[in-house]
């Protein structure tokens, strides 16, 4: 890369660190660190939710699918999220917000100990945290791939550089730093995406390329589904993404919790939904056109990076690279904050009784230490990502398939319709989904559609079915569900372990 490109990338990294250090002054309590004290405006919560939902995987693995298969990647990869978040704006956003405002919850899993029991909470916490280590490792590997293609930086060094910068600002500034850097990253990424779109349209003969390009591409590239990414995969993805992007990915639940009230939480979710439906089309158009501009490349995953380095002048290459960085750093920093919340608020008090009585300063220190440990672990695993199935293998086959069993009890446990499903249904549905995945993927070497759909469908059937066949309805469960189901003020009182419960 040219010196101007390195200046752009370096300036971006410096900006992220400065925002993190500035946000440090706004973090005085554990609630500030994990939920921004419930003071985040809806537009910032919505943009942060959007930016925290996808990463450099879009510019590597998804760009590869766009190169070989066309628009199908938009439908199952992005439109499914937009639809899912739209559903969540009506169904889940306000409930997450009430968990914070009415029950004083700071971690997405904190309420599970009361809704189900501690074993259920711990099962979801440990399995979800382990899954996120591999998920984020795939994101580090994706951004390292981009850096390697752009500048020849070795993979390990690419992981270390981006991981270390992210670690600095998300550790010192908490959720405020995440959200504010998300906004800055959104602006940078938007400029970069528009520059790339402009250059590609110029190569295609002007703005008319927006509609003429489709006649020059192979007809199969215009199909929303393919033999691999079938209609079943698309429909299952809508279900998976509805759960995943409304709390199954714990960091996204925090954006709903951080809004001042339920109205603001819903508005933020709707903004994120619209962005997921519209904005990816701007970013992905160059990927769809890539077979015409750089035909017959050996590795389709490198398509976006090759176009950037081939078509853009010095300085703009660095801008696009900073835009790509922004996605991964936004997702990872928010994930790290959410995992830190789960470790500090849910896992640590069970493992170490003293943690229940942490002061605010001790709680903040524990949060920051757990963030450091988590991010370092993901960076270590990222160096082995290729041996674990590559970026697409981890993101699609692991995360998409295993997120369902973890999300089903967490999300459906909030809804009145499933108040009869208790801890037994939660644990069995979680275990059943994981076993179903192991059988489908490792036992039968099933197709993508079967591998992704089986775990979540099994978990749903078990959670709902056991609720009807072996109901475990309790007064404490009803109290929690009723409290987060409405906006009227409900008195809360302190229980013996220090958590808040309906009075």
Automatic annotation (TrEMBL):
Which GO cellular component terms are attached?
A: plasma membrane
Keyword annotations for this protein? Answer: Cell membrane, Ion transport, Membrane, Sodium, Sodium transport, Transmembrane, Transmembrane helix, Transport
What are the recorded GO MF terms, alphabetically? symporter activity
Q: What InterPro entries does its record include?
A: Na/Glc_symporter_sf, Na/solute_symporter, Sodium:Solute_Symporter_SSF
TM region positions: 6-22, 42-67, 73-93, 130-151, 157-176, 183-201, 221-240, 274-297, 303-325, 363-382, 388-413, 425-444, 450-470
Give one Pfam family.
Answer: SSF
Q: Where in the cell is it found?
A: Cell membrane
Per the UniProt entry, what are the Gene Ontology biological process annotations, in alphabetical order? sodium ion transport
Q: Which Gene3D superfamilies match?
A: Sodium/glucose cotransporter
This protein's membrane topology, according to the annotation, is: Multi-pass membrane protein
What is the similarity comment for this entry? Belongs to the sodium:solute symporter (SSF) (TC 2.A.21) family.
Protein name as annotated: Na+:solute symporter
């Amino acid at each position: 890369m040219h010196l101007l490109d390195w200046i752009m990338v370096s300036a971006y990294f410096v900006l992220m660190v400065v925002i993190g250090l500035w946000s440090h002054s706004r973090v005085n309590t554990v609630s500030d660190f994990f939920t921004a004290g419930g003071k985040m405006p809806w537009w910032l919560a919505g943009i942060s939710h959007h930016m925290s939902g996808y990463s450099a995987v879009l510019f590597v693995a998804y760009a590869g699918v766009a190169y070989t298969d066309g628009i199908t990647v938009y439908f199952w990869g992005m439109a499914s999220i937009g639809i899912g978040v739209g559903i969540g704006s009506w169904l889940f956003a306000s409930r997450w917000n009430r968990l914070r405002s009415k029950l004083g919850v700071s971690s997405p899993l904190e309420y599970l100990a009361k809704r189900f029991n501690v074993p259920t909470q711990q099962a979801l916490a440990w399995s979800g945290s382990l899954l996120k280590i591999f998920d984020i490792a795939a994101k580090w590997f994706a951004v390292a791939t981009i850096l390697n293609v752009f500048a020849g930086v070795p993979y390990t060094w690419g992981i270390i550089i981006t991981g270390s910068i992210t670690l600095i600002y998300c550790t010192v500034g908490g959720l405020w730093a995440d959200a504010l850097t998300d906004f800055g990253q959104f602006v940078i990424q938007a400029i970069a995406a528009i520059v790339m779109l402009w250059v590609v349209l110029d190569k295609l003969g002007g703005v008319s390329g927006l509609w003429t390009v489709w006649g020059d591409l192979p007809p199969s590239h215009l199909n929303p589904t393919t033999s691999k990414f079938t209609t079943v995969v698309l429909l299952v993805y809508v279900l998976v993404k509805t759960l995943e992007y409304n709390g199954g990915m714990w960091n996204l639940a925090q954006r709903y919790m951080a809004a001042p009230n339920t109205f603001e939480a819903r508005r933020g979710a709707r903004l994120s939904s619209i962005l997921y439906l519209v904005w990816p089309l701007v970013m992905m158009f160059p990927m769809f056109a890539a077979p015409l501009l750089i035909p017959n490349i050996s590795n389709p995953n490198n398509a976006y990076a090759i176009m950037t380095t081939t078509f853009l002048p010095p300085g703009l290459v660095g801008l696009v690279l900073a835009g790509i960085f922004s996605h991964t750093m936004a997702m990872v920093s928010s994930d790290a904050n959410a995992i830190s919340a789960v470790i500090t608020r849910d896992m640590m008090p069970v493992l170490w009784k003293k943690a229940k009585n942490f002061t605010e300063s001790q709680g903040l220190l524990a949060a920051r230490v757990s963030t450091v440990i988590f991010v370092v672990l993901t960076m270590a695993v990222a160096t082995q990502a290729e041996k674990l199935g590559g970026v697409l293998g981890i993101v699609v086959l692991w995360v998409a398939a295993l997120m369902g069993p973890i999300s089903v009890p967490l999300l459906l446990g909030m809804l009145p319709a499933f108040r009869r499903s208790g801890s037994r249904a939660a644990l069995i549905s979680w275990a059943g989904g994981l076993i179903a995945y192991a059988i489908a993927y490792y036992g039968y070497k099933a197709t993508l559609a079967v591998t992704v759909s089986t775990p979540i469908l099994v978990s749903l059937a078990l959670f709902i079915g056991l609720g009807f066949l072996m109901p475990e309805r309790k007064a404490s469960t009803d109290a929690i569900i009723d409290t987060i189901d409405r906006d009227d003020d409900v008195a809360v009182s302190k229980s013996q372990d220090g958590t808040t419960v309906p009075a």
